[in-house]
Hints:
Residues 617-724 form the Gamma-secretase-activating protein C-terminal domain. This protein is an alpha+beta fold. Among the domains are: 522-700, no CATH class; 745-826, no CATH class. The strands form seven sheets. It has a six-stranded mixed beta sheet with strand order 19-15-16-17-18-32, with no helix packed on it. Strands 10, 11, 12, 13 and 14 form a five-stranded antiparallel beta sheet that branches. Strands 20-21-22-23-31 form a five-stranded antiparallel beta sheet, with no helix packed on it. The protein is elongated and about 135 Å long. Mean pLDDT is 83; it is low at 771-778. The structure holds 2-acetamido-2-deoxy-beta-D-glucopyranose (NAG) (3 copies). Residues 395, 426-427, 430-431 line the site of one 2-acetamido-2-deoxy-beta-D-glucopyranose.
Amino acid sequence: xxxxxxxxxxxxxxxxxxxxxxxxxxxxxxxxxxxxxxxxxxxxxxxxxxxxxxxxxxxxxxxxxxxxxxxxxxxxxxxxxxxxxxxxxxxxxxxxxxxxxxxxxxxxxxxxxxxxxxxxxxxxxxxxxxxxxxxxxxxxxxxxxxxxxxxxxxxxxxxxxxxxxxxxxxxxxxxxxxxxxxxxxxxxxxxxxxxxxxxxxxxxxxxxxxxxxxxxxxxxxxxxxxxxxxxxxxxxxxxxxxxxxxxxxxxxxxxxxxxxxxxxxxxxxxxxxxxxxxxxxxxxxxxxxxxxxxxxxxxxxxxxxxxxxxxxxxxxxxxxxxxxxxxxxxxxxxxxxxxxxxxxxxxxxxxxxxxxxxxxxxxxxxxxxxxxxxxxxxxxxxxxxxxxxxxxxxxxxxxxxxxxxxxxxxxxxxxxxxxxxxxxxxxxxxxxxxxxxxxxxxxxxxxxxxxxxxxxxxxxxxxxxxxxxxxxxxxxxxxxxxxxxxxxxxxxxxxxxxxxxxxxxxxxxxxxxxxxxxxxxxxxxxxxxxxxxxxxxxxxxxxxxxxxxxxxxxxxxxxxxxxxxxxxxxxxxxxxxxxxxxxxxxxxxxxxxxxxxxxxxxxxxxxxxxxxxxxxxxxxxxxxxxxxxxxxxxxxxxxxxxxxxxxxxxxxxxxxxxxxxxxxxxxxxxxxxxxxxxxxxxxxxxxxxxxxxxxxxxxxxxxxxxxxxxxxxxxxxxxxxxxxxxxxxxxxxxxxxxxxxxxxxxxxxxxxxxxxxxxxxxxxxxxxxxxxxxxxxxxxxxxxxxxxxxxxxxxxxxxxxxxxxxxxxxxxxxxxxxxxxxxxxxxxxxx
Length: 831
Ligand SMILES: *[C@@H]1O[C@H](CO)[C@@H](O)[C@H](O)[C@H]1NC(C)=O
Ligand SMILES: *[C@@H]1O[C@H](CO)[C@@H](O)[C@H](O)[C@H]1NC(C)=O
Ligand SMILES: *[C@@H]1O[C@H](CO)[C@@H](O)[C@H](O)[C@H]1NC(C)=O
């Protein structure tokens, strides 16, 4: 299935039958598309298509058959700049037109059609481009026009217009138009129409330097960037990118000419992509300079079927989050710009997945984000990633790297919708065990959280983790990649907003920060374990109170979200451990953000942190709800009178994996999780497995579940065995709370236990009031006796030996004696 889908953008209805095909010649900043066609008398027409209103507008007509090279209209649509070829070389020789220049560049008043001015009449090719002020601004009396010449310079004309009678707009200055040089001696230039900036390369000594000029709406232009590139350029003719589209010339593109493009992303990414000549026939090489990260990566792809007649040139497309390197019939590499460090965050597609219908194998350009122009046919398309195809790709994937790349793309780039998220959860729940190098549950939680949180504030993307996977050493079949450190670009902008500010902060974090600024939970785990072990009486310290207060805030914050009905019994009980973890996470995440976002107010950070932890719990809840839906479980999973079904068993397994995923990253679980998990365990597992899970700490004995179990189960032999096994595993404090729910002689054990304890306390004048350390999974033989011996041993360990003279009289002796005596009374043989 094709991952990339195209949608034709221009729909023109009013061209008559005799006219020729349309060619797109330019796309202006407001998204309007300029196109030309030949009319009946071989007239050359120029039209404008508005993507928003889907309206066409006729701009101008030449009563000649002209080859338009470049064309631009100002934002008020009062002036049209056109550059065209007057004659071909052959015509010139044959018709003795030596005195006539080969190319002509005109500035035409079109509101209404009026004067025409010649801007250039030269033998070298010229491209024109009006500057567009802020998109919101209405009309202005000043237009600025860029003119790029094959003679390796770019200049800017200032054109003042005045409105004469009845909206007639004419150029004010009758003499020479004021002009300024923007760049000289360049060998390559690219116009970024959306952001109104010009990238260009000048050879400097032995290296090439990439520069950028930013045009501001009111000021003049400023040079804002300089960066060295280690790209060798053999062809020194000027190459222009996105200065309109001259389909005739672009079709004749020399195979050895420089194929280089700059791409920027909203998040402050700046990449230079170029394809490199390779002498090996079945191999292709391209290189991406991640200027915002400080490295370049060179990819080499071995081609399956090397077809020599095929143009071996990679096309680069801008999809904002990704740059696509595309070789028709071979591969489509979606290169992640935001997180380029791990290869498994980029999708490398071949075969059917890599096919892009309608895109020809000749010259392609990407004039705008998510737009592609077929320079041969002159048509323009919107490009997007199909989430259906992405899901299909995920389902068919054979490698972990593919799965990770697809998950990453779906969760972070495509902007996951509820439906897509549901599909992903279902995939995860069914295909958990196919992933070996990463945990898809962890990846889902971390990536979804990142995607939900980052838009909240600038720079948060550098502080929150976006993946559960910190290292990946796998390979992607068919591609090799070499990474080199490069020098960082020098920015000449200060206090700027938008892209340059984001790029600047990206560069700052490469320059100064530890590579992993992302929040990490290893401190959290240590602190959590420490606090969990705290004794009851220490739980009242201010520190702990504060932590638990945090957790309360998270839970009540979550309550204010109007979310769908909750899965019982989640969020319906207290879970001290999980609340501790939530509270700690709040406090540590807050510290982390405070450290790096000093200019942000405490209130805002508190808000972000609460959102983060609440979203985390909500995601886990959402995941469980979807799994419930998928397996059609009902609330009866929490009754103990029946055995669980196969679906319940599957869900029990998924819950165990969620638990494992959360433990692995020290993420809090919604309170009630353990109750539900244990409930399913009791229904689904055979007794010995259940007990094994309890003893190994997978299942937790929660008060709610144990109480229900004791209350609801009758005293058949099997149930008694179960209840007895559970009772003996309860920590003492919990045991005290629930014994009353089981009306059974076994309770005598506990009454006896308590009695011994009280008695001993009296005896020792309170010296053994310290509770005996709990022993989990005690070998259960004779409970009151075990308790007694434990308690005695505790006293012994304090150094209180009542009978110091008689060495052999100790706890062990008491235990042995008691057992022997019992055996004798029962008439059993004691060995
Ligand atoms: C799980 O993977 C298999 C094959 O790997 C696929 O056929 C199936 O559709 C996947 N499940 C879901 C729910 O996507
Ligand atoms: C990548 O950068 C390194 C270091 O500057 C340079 O040596 C290498 O030639 C670059 N790779 C490409 C393909 O330009
Ligand atoms: C546990 O935390 C307390 C209080 O912060 C501290 O005094 C103690 O040293 C910590 N113990 C361990 C084992 O880290």
